Amino acid sequence: MAVEPVRLVVTGATGRMGEELIDTAGDRSDVSVVAAISRTPGNVAAEAAVGTHLDATLSDEERVDVVVDFTAPEATAEYAEIAARHGVAFVTGTTGLEGHDADPLGALDAASESVPVLHASNFSRGIAALRGAIREAAASLPDYDVEVTETHHNDKRDAPSGTALTLIEDVESERPDLTERQHGREGEQPREPGEIGVHARRAGDVTGEHEVLFAGNRETVSLSHSAGDRGVFAEGALDAAAAIAGREAGRYQFTDLLRD
Ligand SMILES: NC(=O)C1=CN([C@@H]2O[C@H](COP(=O)(O)OP(=O)(O)OC[C@H]3O[C@@H](n4cnc5c(N)ncnc54)[C@H](OP(=O)(O)O)[C@@H]3O)[C@@H](O)[C@H]2O)C=CC1
Ligand SMILES: O=C(O)C1=N[C@H](C(=O)O)C[C@H](O)C1
After folding, report:
1. Quick one: which atom of ligand 1 is closest to the CA of 39?
2. Which atom of ligand 2 is nearest to the CA of 166?
3. Count H helices, E strands: the chain?
4. Residue 123 in marked binding region
5. Cis omega before residue 160 (within 30°)?
6. Other CB atoms closer than 10 Å to residue 116's CB: what's the count?
């Protein structure tokens, strides 16, 4: 018996990730993009309906299961509220949410009281696997210095990357002695024992690279990931959207949905 595809609305449709999501979804039978949202609708390359306002689109469409959002913190806050008001699940990969004036993290929590909500700073399966390895290394190498380095394309807005922040939290969960995040270094600044070094590089069209270095006095361990293209993020986000549709309201983790 044929299974109905999960019906999606993609926001930020002219963005790098919006375009990748629409393209990748076109090759899959488990999801279908029924509408795309953009402030500049003329530029959207999609066969689906194109709207400028999520609220109006969710009112017009017969049925939408999930809104998939890769935009900007202020837009994510607004779209989460609108999706919840329409009873539609919300999957977002937008980063830079921490401490933003629009309180997107509060908006995700509020939305999760009525619909399923998933936010992941990185939707690649490789990063999901790397996170387990990083927690294990952090627990096994208690006195080693830790330095996190990320590299992204020169149009990225937020620094450090959302993924870098997630990986730092993974290290910190096993190393409560590391209480200071040292962003870059300049001048006379010897390393302090409680530091995690954090380094953000912006160059060319690099899709996304992350490295966590553990250094003792006679050895180093380097755990790293490099995304070959944005398709890995799009596939993961669409997997998450397909898996979250029809679930109970609440906050979901990408790593949990991968295991189900
Ligand atoms: N979690 C993950 O795996 C990944 C996360 N990301 C994150 O996703 C986000 C988007 O990245 P990327 O696609 O490269 O960025 P782009 O700048 O290419 O696209 C963002 C899109 O968001 C829309 N947008 C921006 N601001 C607003 C606003 N205030 N209101 C409505 N729409 C807005 C715009 O679309 P339009 O003009 O069409 O409305 C824009 O095209 C970033 O936060 C990035 O860090 C990126 C890759 C992977
Ligand atoms: O902006 C990007 O491009 C990416 N953003 C995410 C992040 O901030 O970690 C994920 C990925 O690295 C690409």
Report:
1. 39
2. 9
3. 8, 12
4. yes
5. yes
6. 22
Residue the block writes with tokens 């397909």: 242
Q: Which of 161, 230, 233, 235 to mutate to test the pocket of ligand 2 (most atoms within 8 A of CB)?
A: 161
116 Cβ contact partners less than 8 Å away, ≥ 6 residues apart: 89, 90, 244, 247, 248, 249, 250, 252
The yes/no answer to whether this complex scores an ipTM above 0.95 is yes
Cα of 12 from ligand 1 centre, angstroms = 6
For the stretch 16-48, pLDDT in tens is: 999 999 999 999 999 999 999 999 877 777 778
Task: Name the residue with tokens 């790098």.
Answer: 16
CA distances from 153 to 158, 207, 229 (A): 11, 6, 12
> d(Cα 158, Cα 233) in Å, to the nearest integer?
17
Element (H, E) at 174: helix 162-174
Model-level pTM?
0.97
Q: Which ligand is nearest to the CA of 225?
A: 2
In terms of C-beta density within 10 A (0-12 exposed, 13-18 middle, 19 or more buried), how is residue 142 classed? Answer: exposed
Between helix 162-174 and helix 125-140 the angle, nearest 10°, is 30
DSSP letter at 229 equals S
- Write down the pLDDT at residue 51: 87
Measure 137 CA to ligand 2 centroid, in angstroms. Answer: 23
Residue 161 beta carbon below 6 angstroms from any ligand 2 atom: yes
- CB 119 less than 6 A from any atom of ligand 2: no
* 95 assigned to a ligand binding site: yes
